[in-house]
Amino acid sequence: MYMTLAADFAGTWYFRGDRKVPCYIRLRGATLEITDEERNTYPVRTEGTDVIIVQVPWRGMRGELSTDKRRIAWNNGEIWER
């Protein structure tokens, strides 16, 4: 396992790699938040190479960052790419 920082997750992502469907992970002060493909925003935390949504309705949803930091594979089978 490699070491990641919250900043490694930050930036614009694309739902299923589709450039017409941007998603975002932002670092706002000490808080990391995610905006999904439906424009819902949730607080998240990181744990190793994973980003974890900590708010209902997706509490516990986990996405693993690839080693090249260009892809997040979510545990529901979806992917986000840069």
Query: What class do helices, strands and sheet pairing give?
Result: mainly beta
Termini Cα gap? 21 Å
Q: Helix fraction?
A: under 10%
The count of strands amounts to 8
Low-confidence stretches: none
SSE run: HEEEEEEEE
Instruction: Give the count of structural domains.
Output: 1
Radius of gyration over alpha carbons? Answer: 11 Å
Q: Give the helix tally.
A: 1
What do the pLDDT scores average to?
90
Q: What kind of oligomer do you see? A: single chain
Shape: globular
SSE layout and pairing:
Elements: H1 6-9, E1 11-15, E2 22-28, E3 31-35, E4 41-47, E5 50-53, E6 62-65, E7 71-74, E8 79-81
Antiparallel strand pairs: 1-2, 1-8, 2-3, 3-4, 4-5, 5-6, 6-7, 7-8
3D architecture notes:
The protein starts with 5 loop residues before the first helix and ends with a strand. Strands 1-2-3-4-5-6-7-8 form an eight-stranded antiparallel beta barrel. It is globular. By secondary structure, it is mostly beta strands. A hairpin with a 6-residue loop joins strand 1 and strand 2. It has one helix and eight strands, in the order H-E-E-E-E-E-E-E-E. The chain has one domain (6-81).
Keyword list:
82 residues; eight-stranded antiparallel beta barrel; 8 strands; mainly beta; 1 helix
